[in-house]
Amino acid sequence: MISSVLVPMDGSEMAERALRYALEVHRDAAITVLHVVGEPSSMMGRATGIALADDPQAAAQEAASDLFDRAREIAAESDREIETVVRVGHPARAVLNMTDDFDAVVVGSHGGSLADRLLVGNVAEKIVRRSAAPVTVVR
Questions:
Q1: What Pfam families does this protein map onto (predicted)?
Q2: Burial level of 76, CB count in 10 A (0-12/13-18/19+)?
Q3: Which of left, alpha, beta for 79 (phi over 0: left; psi -120 to 50: alpha)?
Q4: What is the largest CA-CA distance in the chain?
Q5: Edge-to-edge strands, sheet with 104-108
Q6: All domains in the chain, ordered by first residue
Q7: DSSP characters for 80-94?
Q8: Among the listed residues 112, 101, 105, the one whose alpha carbon sits nearest the alpha carbon of residue 128
Q9: Are 81 and 75 in contact (CB under 8 A)?
């Protein structure tokens, strides 16, 4: 029996579909939404700002707040509550580091833009290949 499900979300429509699927199919399971803020890079993106913040965990939580609010709205449509977790790091690695703690993973097939589709599709593929828990990919 599946009692805990991890749903990685990146703000894309596919990630929202994955959450809706998890809520519908795993009605009795605890659902945890994970958002991963990328690793710091020389490009000085959002993750670098978070890494340099006085309180990186609080900065990461703030960066994920809109996404988590949207995830809670989706869960409320099904009269459900969710747990939320934010991590800083490489998306696939961060998800894979958590799969031992869950009975299943439900992931969107890819993100919204072409760049997201290439990156997130690659993330979904890595999760499918290496996850300790069974993975459902939602389109």
A1: Usp
A2: exposed
A3: left
A4: 44
A5: 83-88, 30-37, 4-8, 104-108, 135-138
A6: 29-113+126-138 (3.40.50.620)
A7: ---EEEEEES-HHHH
A8: 105
A9: yes
Contact 106, 133 (CB under 8 A): no
Contact 70, 10 (CB under 8 A): no
User: What does the alpha-carbon distance between residue 119 and residue 100 come to, in Å, rounded to a whole number?
Assistant: 23
**What tens digit of pLDDT does each residue of 18-31 get?**
999 999 999 999 99
- CA dist 6 and 15 (Å) reads 12
How far is it, in rounded angstroms, from Cα 72 to Cα 81? 7
How does pLDDT run across 43-91, given as a tens digit for each residue?
A: 445 555 565 567 877 888 998 999 999 999 999 999 999 999 999 888 9
pTM for the model stands at 0.87
Q: Which of 68, 66, 65 is nearest to 76 (CA)?
A: 68
φ, ψ dihedrals at 93, nearest 5°: -60, -40
Q: Count CA atoms within 13 Å of residue 17 on its CB side.
A: 12
